[in-house]
Structures are given as C-alpha cells and as structure tokens.
C-alpha cells in the first residue's frame, strides 16, 4: 500500500492537444472552505474523473468537481467532493505533512510545462496541507512552500479551496505562461485514486507525460525577496557522578535570504543557519551493520531546488548500493552556504550549491577545521520527460578530498518505456595517503510500465576505488545485472481488486573476493476488501563478506489495513538467514518484526506507535547473540492547523535507553514558527565510587537533559 501511495502521489500528465484556460478573476476568493464566493461562479470546472488505482479507466466511485481560476498574483483551485457515505470520510486536524493516510485531493502542477518536475499540493477535508517536489522518478515530501488552503465537511461530502501565491513557485518568464495540471482525489477506505486527465493504461504511471496543459495570461513576474531571521537557544545537561552538569548553554542568531533573479531562477544564501531538528530522528536498528544508516534531509536551506540533484540510474533496485550523489545530510554542521537554482530559458535547469561545514574536534585534528562542499548540477530537457544532465560534487578539506563528476540522462523510448543511464567518475585522496585514487560507476537501466505489466532491467558497475563524499554509497567494487518482471492481475471479484506478482533476480560480482553472489525473490501482493493488503515473499540470496560467502535468504509476509477511519495498522515479519559482520564473520539467522499503528480517537488527537524487533542466533550452535527491540510512541494533540502539542517516548531495550521528547509548536506558514522543546535520556547506569566508573544498574537514571527554543519569521517582499 505504502509503495503504491508513494507512486500515485507523484500523480501527473495526460497530454492534450489544446491547453485549457482557467478563468481570470478580479475579485479573489476568500479561502474558507466555502464555494459561495463570486470568484467561483462561472469558472472552469471539470468533473470527468477516472480511476488509475486499483485499476485504470473506471468511473470514480464518488463524483468530484474541480475548479480553476487565477489573478495576476495567485492560482486558485477548489474541489467539490461528493461522498455517498460521508460518515466514512477519513480526515484529521493534524500538523502539516501528516495527511497521506486521510482522504485528500491534490494539485499536481508542472509549472514550466517541461515534463521534468512538478509541485504537488495535497489537502485533506479539514484543509490540512502536505506538499512535495517530484523529479527524475523521486518524490520528496521534505519540501515546504507557502500556500493557503481550507476545507469543510458537508452532509454529502466535502469542499476544499486552495490559493497558491506565484511567489511560492517557479515558472517561465513568458506571456502567456503555459503550465500543466493533474487533478487527483484519493479515497482511503477504498484505496481509490481518480484523476483528471485520465491516465492512459498503455503509459502506466508515467505521470509527467500525461498532464493537461493550461494557459495563464498576464501573470506577475516577481523579483522575489525573502528574509528569514531565526533565534535559537538551547541548554543541555549531561551526567556527572551524582548529578546533571551543564554541558551547553548557547543562543544563536541565523539569517537566510532568498532572492528571485527571475521568476524561474532563485538565489539562496545563509549564514550560521539554524538546522536544528524539531523532532529527533526515529530510532533504527544500529547494530550489526555493513553500511551506515540513512537519515532523510529535513533542514530548510537545502530543500529549495533539491529535486534538481536527483540523478538518473541511482537507487535502481533493492540491491543498488548507490542511492544518490547528493545527500546533504553529509554536511553536518554548516557555517554558511549559498545556492542558485532554477531554469535558464525553457530547456535548461541549473543548481549550484556551496557550503562550508565546521568539522567536529575528532575530525578537525585529521582533516582540518572546515570541509567545503562545491556542487554543480545541469540538465537539458528534450521531448517528453527525456533529458541529459551533468554533475560535479566535491568535498574538500585541508588534507584530503573527494571529487565526483558525471553525466546522466533519461530517454523515453516508447509510451510506456524509458532508458536511464549514467557515467560517474571520482577522485579521492584520504588523510595521510599519497596520490589520489580514481574510480567510476556506470549504469544503464530499461524500464517498462503499463497497466498490466512492469518490467525493469539494469546493469551497474562500480569500481573498488569509487567513493562519494557527498552522496550515499553503501558498497563499492561490484558489478550487478538485475531484472524485475511484475504482472498485475485484476480479478473480476468484489473481494480482491488487484494482485501484483513480482519476480526479481540480481547477480552480483564482488570484485574484492572475485566471487559471485545472488539475490532472487518472488512475491505476491493482494489488495482486497477495499483497504486491506497482504504480501508474501520468498527470497533466495547469498552475500560475500571479507572473502566468505554467506546465505541471506528467507521468507517474509506483511499485512496492512485501515480497519476504521480511526485505526490503521501495518505489520511486517521476516525470517531470514543473516551474517554477523565482524573481523571474524559467521553465519546466523534472524527474526525481524516491524509494526506501525495509528489510532485517532478524535480528529485532533493521534497516537502513532512503532515497534521494531531484530534478533540474531549463530547457526553453528543456535546461541542467541543479541535481541534488539525498539518501541516508540508519539502522541500529538493538534489544537488547530497552527498549534500542536506532542510527546514522544522511545524505549531501546538493547541500548538500555529511554528517550522522552516534548514539543509545543506553532507554525503559521513554513518559516514563521515558534518551537519549544524539552527532552531527556534515561539509562540503566549508576556511579561506583570505588571503581570511579559507571556500572550497569536495574533502575533508569536520567543521564542527559535539554531544552530548546526556536523562533523565526518569514518576511516576503
């Protein structure tokens, strides 16, 4: 379910020969969730919505009418969503970016009409927002834009109104301005996505080449200027033998500015930026790892134009070790940064980023005080969603460097198929080493996506000396050939709506050991009874580690359901063979459980519970090596769309840690915020006076404490 929602939420494109023309209004509508404004009278309206999930081309189960209007400064949209069972509409008064489990509508907007990227603006029936950017096959929900929405439940459905200021999006410096649109509605209890325009089953989920063109006349073209000062204050305490002592007491000012060189090219700059996290990263299993954990980017400065850095031929399959070439979480403690991103002309996309990172003391002794990150990305668009691009990404310090440069592209071969490719070269000098080492990564991928069938084949070669200091790479020195075949079956049944069957195989040559390893699975995923899904998978695989070959196959199953509009759950269980990663590795076996549960007894209150459990037993003697459970409870009370109170409790039994985190947060628009947070870390330790050290104890003791305050205000001219 989660995978389908992610793909469908990208929603976008059915090519029409003639653009539609939204209605220009002289009196803007009041965004209050009502359609009684004069601006909505006699405007462009569309009601021919067709489904694209679970199946294509069916009449939507519930009627939807979409409206479009504009003036010189804003784009206006509205939805009248009818529902024959209004008491089953799933909605919530929630914080921003937390509505994808609800019913919602979405405006998918290709503002440049170049079929390369889009904005997505989601709104639930209470007017709560989620937004994203999509490019090169990836949707990024970390993007935040300033726009306005309101919603209202009605006896026969709901209404949503949307206003998108032109200052919040990038668009061509022309008159008229041609954009393209994809109106989307999601009904959660049925897992039903419907849209206008209708998606062509022969083109599958190729949204960007199936959107409806629109023409806007006499739009303002701004020289945008934004000024975002922020104040943060934090105080942290850390364990001393018998008390908590102050470790940090710091207040800081930061400044971020945004200047619109044109309506489609933006310059961002920041000094001493506040990149503090409002919510700490959720705990992950961090023992027995071959590669570092991945954490998503959440920091505001890096998000403008971040989709431009998406690189073709990365993250091509579940065994692809190169997920991205630009993962800005590698810039840990930035001191200053500058970025230019946007369009030059109608076909050229550019992003230039330079950041200075202040290194921690343990690294500064080796590499110097600062690391510098110069990154340059260029793309040239062609027909449909095809493009060719290039990138340079570097990490430079006093004593070492990593420099990567490459080209990539996507070519649409047929209505349903594309070829992705890349060629990347790196030069790396490590501290204390002699000459730099050069490496390369090369990829070609063929993808076919239609209503009835998906197949995907790729070849990837990464040399042993290829490294990236700016991206996310889990392994080098491999050659992989992989293939996926995925038929989709649509039974004529009121019980089962669709069955997806996956058959995947990857054969990998591990260059350091000169051995081959294999990764093969077959799975079946069924959608039934509206909102339920079940998946079973059998995996046969091997993996080479330190010159030895180990078995890593097994069995997994998952179940997901929205039982009522108040309660939903997803459970995944795997029983696999596994490796104990150490200088003397050995074969083992593991049980793995993941549970995600959401309960909303009232629309303003949500309980979100996650539970992860991994264990590991050595195969030779069945000895239990470790058990690692983490349970996390997040309770959020949303007083209104602006103000929330949130508490988090996370217990990590393996680490013997209990984390508490409390937050009061007010967000008027992204940038204008007030956050007040408090957190503690409890551990099972006690101070031993005789040994002058900490020992394991039966009771929890508070070992760290801290609180922070953040205030910022967005000035827009």
Q: How is this structure best described in words?
A:
The structure is a single chain. The two termini are 42 Å apart. β15 (225-239) and β16 form a beta hairpin. Among the domains are: 2-216, Immunoglobulin-like (Sandwich), CATH 2.60.40.1190; 490-640, no CATH class. It is an all-beta fold. The chain has a 24-stranded antiparallel beta barrel. Strands 3, 6, 7, 8, 9, 12, 13 and 14 form an eight-stranded antiparallel β-sheet that branches.
Short description:
With 717 residues, this protein is mainly beta.
Question: Could you say which structural class the secondary elements and strand pairing correspond to?
Answer: mainly beta
Can you count the beta strands? Answer: 42
Count of runs of 4 or more consecutive helical residues: 2
Mean pLDDT: 91
Shape label: globular
Using the 3D structure, state the CATH architecture of the domain at 2-216.
Answer: Sandwich
First and last CA, distance: 42 Å
Poorly predicted segments:
1-16
Q: Could you name the CATH class of the domain at 2-216?
A: Mainly Beta
Beta-strand proportion: over 45%
Q: Quick one: biggest sheet?
A: 24 strands, antiparallel, barrel
Radius of gyration: 26 Å
* Topology-level CATH name of the domain at 2-216: Immunoglobulin-like
Helicity level: under 10%
């Amino acid at each position: 379910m989660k995978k389908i929602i992610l793909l469908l939420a990208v929603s976008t494109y059915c090519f029409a020969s003639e653009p539609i023309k939204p209605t220009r209004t002289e009196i803007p509508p009041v965004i209050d969730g009502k359609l009684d404004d004069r601006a909505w009278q006699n405007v462009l309206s569309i009601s021919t919505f067709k489904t694209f999930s679970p199946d294509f081309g069916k009449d939507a189960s519930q009627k939807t009418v979409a409206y479009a209007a504009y003036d010189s400064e804003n784009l206006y949209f509205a939805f009248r969503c009818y529902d024959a069972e209004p008491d089953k509409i799933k909605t919530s008064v929630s914080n921003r970016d937390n509505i994808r489990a609800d019913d919602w509508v979405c405006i998918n907007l290709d503002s440049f009409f170049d079929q390369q990227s889009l904005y997505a603006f989601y709104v639930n029936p209470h007017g709560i927002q989620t937004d994203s950017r999509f490019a090169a096959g990836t949707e990024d929900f970390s993007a935040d834009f300033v726009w306005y929405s309101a919603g209202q439940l009605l006896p026969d459905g709901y209404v949503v109104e949307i206003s998108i200021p032109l200052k919040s999006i990038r668009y061509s410096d022309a008159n008229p301005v041609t954009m393209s649109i994809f109106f989307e509605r999601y009904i959660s209890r049925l897992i039903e996505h419907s849209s206008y325009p209708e998606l062509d089953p022969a083109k599958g989920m190729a949204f960007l080449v199936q959107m409806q063109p629109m023409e806007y006349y006499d739009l303002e073209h701004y020289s945008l200027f934004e000024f975002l000062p922020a104040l943060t204050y934090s105080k942290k305490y850390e364990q001393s033998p018998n008390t908590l002592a102050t470790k940090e007491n710091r207040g800081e000012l930061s400044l971020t500015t945004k200047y619109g060189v044109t309506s489609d090219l933006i310059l961002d700059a920041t000094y001493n930026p506040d990149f503090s996290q409002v919510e700490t990263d959720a705990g992950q299993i961090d023992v027995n790892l071959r590669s570092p954990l991945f954490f998503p980017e959440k920091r505001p400065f890096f998000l403008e134009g971040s989709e431009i850095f998406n690189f073709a031929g990365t993250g091509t399959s579940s065994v692809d070790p190169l997920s991205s070439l630009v993962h800005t979480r590698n810039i840990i403690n930035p001191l200053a940064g500058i970025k230019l991103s946007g369009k030059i002309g109608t076909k050229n996309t550019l992003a230039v980023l330079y950041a200075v990172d202040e290194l921690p003391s343990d690294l500064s002794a080796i590499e110097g005080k600062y690391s510098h990150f110069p990154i340059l990305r260029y793309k040239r668009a062609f027909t449909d969603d095809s493009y060719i691009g290039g990138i340079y990404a570097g990490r430079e310090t006093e004593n070492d460097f990593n420099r990567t440069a490459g080209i990539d592209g996507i070519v649409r071969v047929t209505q349903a198929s594309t070829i992705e490719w890349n060629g990347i070269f790196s030069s790396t000098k490590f501290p204390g080493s002699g000459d730099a080492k050069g490496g390369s990564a090369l990829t070609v991928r063929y993808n076919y996506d239609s209503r009835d069938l998906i197949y995907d084949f790729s070849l990837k070669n990464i040399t042993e000396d290829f490294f990236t200091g700016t991206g996310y790479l889990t392994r080098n020195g491999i050659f992989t050939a992989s293939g996926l075949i995925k038929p989709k079956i649509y039974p004529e049944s009121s019980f089962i709506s669709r069955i997806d069957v996956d058959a995947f195989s990857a054969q990998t040559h591990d260059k350091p050991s000169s051995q081959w390893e294999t990764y093969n699975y077959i799975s079946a995923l069924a959608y039934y009874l509206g909102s339920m899904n079940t998946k079973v998978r059998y995996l046969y695989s091997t993996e080479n580690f330190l010159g030895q070959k180990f078995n890593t196959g097994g069995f997994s199953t998952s179940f997901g359901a929205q039982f009522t509009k108040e309660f939903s759950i997803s459970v995944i269980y795997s029983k696999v063979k596994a490796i104990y990663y150490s200088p003397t590795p050995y074969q083992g076996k593991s049980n793995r459980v993941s549970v995600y549960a959401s309960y909303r007894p009232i629309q303003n209150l949500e309980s979100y519970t996650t539970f992860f459990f991994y264990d590991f037993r050595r195969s030779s003697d069945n000895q239990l090596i470790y058990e690692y459970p983490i349970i996390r409870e997040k309770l959020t009370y949303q007083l209104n769309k602006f103000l929330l109170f949130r508490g988090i409790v996370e217990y990590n039994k393996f680490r013997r840690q209990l984390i508490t985190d409390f937050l009061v947060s007010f967000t008027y628009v992204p940038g204008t915020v007030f956050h007040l947070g408090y957190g503690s870390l409890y551990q099972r330790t006690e101070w031993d006076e005789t040994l002058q050290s900490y020992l394991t104890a039966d009771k929890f003791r508070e070992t760290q404490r801290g609180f922070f305050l953040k205030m910022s205000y967005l000035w827009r001219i």
